[in-house]
Amino acid sequence: MITLGLTPLLETERLRLRAPGPQDWLAALAFYRAPRSRFIRDGVDLTDGQCWRAWCHIVGSWVLRGYGSFVITLKGSDDAIGLSGPWHPIDWPEPEIGWTLWRDEVEGKGYAFEAAAATRAHAFRDLGWKTAVSYIDPPNARSVALAERLGAALDRDAPFPGEGPCLVYRHPRPEASA
Q1: Cα–Cα distance between 43 and 15 in angstroms, integer?
Q2: Buried b or exposed e, range 106-141, using 16+ CB within 10 angstroms
Q3: What are the two backbone dihedrals, phi and then psi, of residue 127, each rounded to the nearest 5 degrees?
Q4: pLDDT tens digits for 115-136?
Q5: Is the Cβ–Cβ distance between 158 and 168 less than 8 Å?
Q6: Which of 42, 69, 112, 134 gives 20 to 30 Å between its CA and that of 92?
Q7: Mean pLDDT computed over 35-59
Q8: Could you report the per-residue pLDDT of 57-96, keeping only the tens digit for each?
């Protein structure tokens, strides 16, 4: 198996968070094709080529930035169930903590919270981030609820990528919540 080398492995009580690899492509493709991905693809159906390029952005972030979204797996399994982690395309105003769960049956179990909290801690602690936001499509009520559960607050004055609309939730620094 091809890997990204010395990427960190994060573990929580129930999850392993690892770098993406070729073994995750088919699960990612299934997600991009599924209705649950509508908030990250602006409701547009993507071609296989567009899905591939989106996946290559995920993998490429690790190579070009030295960090990126972690693949979420349940402990005891290497099957990808989603992504979470630090994300900062060059044309985005601020670094983001993002999350997606790829399958309906893993929704509502607290996995996204657990993964997002762990990857946010990694971004502040290990990457030295001073700030982090989450960019959320306004109709995505589950992500809004998760951002608020993580202690993030709506920042109505923050810039956001793209044309919008977009909600920007600002995450507290670890010392702010201690």
Answers
A1: 29
A2: eeeeebbbbbbbbbbebbbeeeebeebbbbbbeeee
A3: -95, -10
A4: 999 999 999 999 999 999 999 9
A5: yes
A6: 112
A7: 79
A8: 999 999 889 999 999 999 999 999 999 999 999 999 999 9
Tell me how crowded residue 11 is: count the other CB atoms within 10 A of its CB.
Answer: 11
User: Closest by alpha carbon to 149, among 126, 128, 120?
Assistant: 120
With 0-12 / 13-18 / 19 or more C-beta atoms within 10 angstroms meaning exposed / middle / buried, residue 12 is: middle
List the 133-136 sheet strands across, edge first.
10-11, 15-18, 70-74, 80-87, 96-101, 133-136, 167-170, 153-154
Q: Confidence band (pLDDT; 50, 70, 90) for 176? A: low
Report the number of secondary-structure helices (H) and strands (E) in the chain.
Answer: 4, 8
φ/ψ (deg, to 5) at 87 = -150, 130
Q: What DSSP designation does 91 have?
A: T
How much is the pTM? 0.91
- Please say if the pLDDT value at position 4 is more than 80: no
User: Whole-angstrom Cα distance, residue 134 to residue 95?
Assistant: 8
